[in-house]
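Troubleshooting log. The previous run stalled partway through. Resubmitting the same two chains, unchanged.
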Amino acid sequence: MTRPGRRRVVIGAAVVVATGLFAWWAKVRIDGLSLDTQSTSTWFRWEYVFVRERTPDELEEMFRQHLQLTVVPVVAGIAISTVLTAVGRRVRWLLAPIYGLGSFLYAIPSLALFGILSTYQSNETAATAALTSYTLLIITRNMVEGLDGVSPAALDAADGMGMSRTQRLLRVELPLAAPTILTGVRVATVTTVGLVGISVVIQLGGFAVLIFDGYERQFTTPLVLGTVLSIALAIALDLALRAVGWFATPWNRRTAGR
Amino acid sequence: MTGQTIELVGVTKTFPGADRPAVAPLDLTFAAGEITALIGPSGCGKTTTLRMVNRLIEPTAGAITIDGVDVRDRPVTELRRDIGYVIQQIGLFPHRTIAQNIATVPSLKGWPKARIAERVEELADLVGIEPAMLTRYPSELSGGQQQRVGVARALAADPPVLLMDEPFGAVDPIVRGRLQQELRTLQDRLHKTIVLVTHDLDEAITLGDKVAVLDVGGIVEQFATPDDLLAAPASGLVADFLGRDRSIRRLALSTVADLDLVPPDLAPPEGDRPPGDAVVTPATTLREALDVILTASTPAATVVDDDGTTIGTVTLDAIREGLAR
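Second attempt completed without errors. Output:
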């Protein structure tokens, strides 16, 4: 099967699954409110999720926090990586140290990084800074590779036809590098969704608060719930970014007819 | 806009770190409205010379003028927008449709949308691109179609000057022949000043009004019309480069109409009459006429005009005399 065809199937299936899950969730919630909840299994107690009146608000708050601790570091990572890429592509020998720094930051155990940073900064700032540092390597590398991968013939044509440096960057280089850059952003985003959980050690953590709570009390329901929600968030963001890529690069979908 | 003269005076290029110049002091004039082919072995600086005209490479010394204006006196982007540029790798922008690709320079020049749309259609028609293809992406086109688009893109803003760097090097021989023919036809209408870099001798002599043979280091060995070049190579190097079949190649430059035909009433006696299949027309090249005679194993071929009337015969002697002129 061709690539665009497979992608369409994946997106279609995801939409169907998401709709189904939502319908199920809504139905269960309504059932839960009807107080007929004592029959649920001990492995996963739906009443934990819905009957206690506060819980949906708590979930919303966790979702907000998890999303924020993902999006802010990724956006900051994109901004910093853009600067690093611009510098590294002008001064090629700086690329090795830039990648080196990225790998070094990546190698620091996240637990330690959260701990150290939170002694100097507020917990939120510490978590954001730590999570940002983890996105730099992958985003910078994909930006550099994407831009380096633009065909020399297209660049020669762009120059020869009288584009300025800025016009060439905006009209030729960035659009052609976009798929590679977007892949980097996607990987960084999904990784960050997972890493947010570790910030539970500094009283943050989004959905991981549930996981930690379940672990401490040996109570599987919140543990499972936190895990599922965290994974769902990662998948949702990944699909959203894929959709952005799909709409932003129409020329990539149209080579099948060859 | 029809062609403008390009003049190179004492143009030299020494690349950083090189101990000898890639292009020696070079004086060349590319006449207005003509195709000049630059040909020579690799390392002869033909591409470097071409790229100095639109300042993709800056000369170390010397001056290049187009229509009397030094290329360095104009902002580089503005200069390049007035020079068509076609390269072997075509270099279409894969993320833009064919129409957008063709519209590159007009849109850089800030033409109004309606005028661009009109111009794109005009060019598609000119180079033989179907309107349906305009909304496609380059990867959906064949190599030959892509190079047609490349030519249309170079012509989009109607530049007086066209630089072509091995424009048909990446397509198969059959398509190449057709594209060369089309370029020649196009040029007969447009009269641009075209500088064509090629390593293909046949391409140089079929397309070029003038051919400049360069030797390594950008030294002009000979600058002449294709016919003069093949008839009288200026040096051993040129003769070697042209190959041992240069007379045969030269035959391709003249047609039967250029010869003094033996009239029908003076035709050879019955026994020597060429058989029916050895027939040529006035438009046949001498090379093809020779082939017809050799294939039919006869001393001469009958020349027949468009109406089918016999207007004479062409003999091996006549072809040989044609070369001697």
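Takeaways: Residues 256-324 of chain B form a domain with the CBS domain Like fold (CATH 3.90.1280.20). Chain B touches chain A through 28 residues (CB under 8 Å).
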